[in-house]
Design goal:
The structure is a homodimer of 174-residue chains.
Chain A: E1 2-4, H1 8-18, E2 23-25, H2 37-52, E3 56-65, E4 72-73, H3 76-82, H4 85-89, E5 97-108, E6 111-123, E7 139-141, H5 153-159, H6 161-172
Parallel strand pairs in A: 1-2, 1-3
Antiparallel strand pairs in A: 3-4, 3-5, 5-6, 6-7
Helix pairs in contact in A: 1-6
Chain lengths: 174, 174
Amino acid sequence: MIFITGNSDKVRELELILGQKLETRDLDLSEIQSIDSEVVATYKAQNAYNLLNKPVLVEDTSLAFIGLNGLPGALIKSFLQCLTLQQIVDLLKENREAIAKTCLAYCDNNGVRLFTAEILGQIAKEPKGEKGFGWDSIFIPSGQNKTFGEMEPEEKNKFSMRQKAAEKLKGIVF
Amino acid sequence: MIFITGNSDKVRELELILGQKLETRDLDLSEIQSIDSEVVATYKAQNAYNLLNKPVLVEDTSLAFIGLNGLPGALIKSFLQCLTLQQIVDLLKENREAIAKTCLAYCDNNGVRLFTAEILGQIAKEPKGEKGFGWDSIFIPSGQNKTFGEMEPEEKNKFSMRQKAAEKLKGIVF
């Protein structure tokens, strides 16, 4: 199985969760425009499989703001390209609730299988912590008082949507 | 040439501009995640051509807020699915400048050719006018004092980015 990603942070995190090294490949695959990680990951997994003709794993993680009716969701990548984390935080008004979702899509000759997990959280009023990547420093998982960016990798993984999705995958594909 | 769209408003508007009926087809094609209409339209035109093996025209229109460093751009479709126009307007703070861009992508056996035009404008503080479609009621073209939604089709076309892009296409493809 080849993990298709160009994001070394995601490789490191998934290897820590799965407890094994992953063969990775950075394919320049288009992502489709959808706020839904399951749609994005399914399309990408199918494309990667068609290209390599080997079992592939792709990952898409979304961040849905309840106050923006689900935006940015899987469009968070474009938001991070255009805006600073502080600018993203400032899009919100009173409602700071968010859902972080990871979808792992595995594709082999039987088609695509999805392993999805989501967690609730709050968006911080300003970025805090430098330990994570992406939007880790603005996301406070529900019931906690610090952002993913303020947590060591092992602590983050206790709460993380990526951990929960990977656990589902682990039980079935490996 | 087949105009690939499921948006009857765009068909009506383009037919008015080009002064002729268009053969249309609504293909369920994926759009890629990019804020840039040229990227989105190129990909879609190539896909449509590969599918139909006939000359095709696709259109993508984006709305870039200067105050959001280009967002939503071509992601405006997802914004319109998630948010009301008032909610979109409320994402902006002081800077209400925007660039509306239409990219027409024509694809035949010589590959893709792009016909792009953009215009400057301001985002209204609230939606006004019911004459247009999409985000017409929040966009005031530069130098004007009403939104596209408050203009009759002929008046809108005098200023519209879609008109300017279509004029370029008209000179070459037809």
